[in-house]
Structure prediction request, 269 residues.
Amino acid sequence: MAPIQNTEEIPTVSDQSLDYMSGCQACTGDSAYLFRDNMEHIEYLVMEARAWVALAFLRIKGPGSLDPSVPELQFLKLPANVTGPEEAYHWCTHLEECRKEMETASLSQGIHLNFLTVCQQYGLDAFETRVLQFLFAVDTSIDLCAMLNRCNVDTWETDRNDIDVGTVLSILTDGYTEQIEKRRYFSATATLVKQEIVRIDGWSTARIIESCISIHARISNFILGDNNVYDESMLCFTTETPTINLDSVIIDPDIRDDLIRYARAFLQQ
Prediction:
């Protein structure tokens, strides 16, 4: 992709309606498209997540062709030529390729994309990145949550509002074999869990596929660029710059060394 010299002449994803067709059009033509800011990138990430849910819905319905133009299926927001799981899979792949090209163009212009920052800092691989993207979309998009309820893709407990590991696997993988292989991403020692990027509840009372999973609030807020405090229990804390050196504190040397060791261990973990 050739370097872009003037961002004012470059079309952005905002130049078109942010629906499924804009993702397709963003990859066509002679000009390189880019995300104007972090929020446009977030909107595209959520759009992709909707496409994954639609694909999962079509897989559950079976290989037969469907007509997404009928009123009962218009909530899928798929292009008219996507009438089955195979076409939906290629559409999802196409959206992903478009996004990566646009991300490259955006980064070359110095546009900061918080989601990519998280993925890079934690060294997330392709599947970990996809899990994070999906859980972020679930956490922030009311429309996506409504779509999940309508698609009924949770094969374990369809009436439960929480997302479980089984649902994530059913949407983001292609069949039983891949679901078994990807279970390891939700173990206690896996990066997503160990680094507290996601939270998993119910380990002691349920199988891993039935355990509820969600993105950690601090990760979701960082991606959004939202520095507001929503947990009132945190309002009693303030950030201060220390004015006293630890060496000047009168305390037993052994206790001080223990405190330093514990603090360092906490920060490392």
